[in-house]
Amino acid sequence: MKFLFEEIANIEYLNLEFSKLEIEETELDHLNHLAKSIIHHKTLDLILDELPDDCREEFLVILSEDEDHQTVLDYLKKSIKDFEVKLIEKVKEIELELMAEIKGEGTA
């Protein structure tokens, strides 16, 4: 399953840092999926915060019906000013939080 944020932002830094951890492949896969899930939920928070109130219900309907995310992305680009920039910045912020948490330097 591909998450919505992956259409615009990548998490190569996070994947690179995870690969440095001395853990089994199955644990690495689980960690990657967990990180993507966290990023997905936090980017949904960003989207819902940025969307005008009268657009939220329509967004959720489109999100539930769109298989490849293109319709959702088009809607968000139209509805949220500088959506792609905001999404990329949010993903980078979350990546840093997750790495700090894994290294024991903070809380996510």
UniProtKB/TrEMBL annotation:
Top-rank lineage group of the source organism: Bacteria
Name of the protein this chain belongs to: Uncharacterized protein
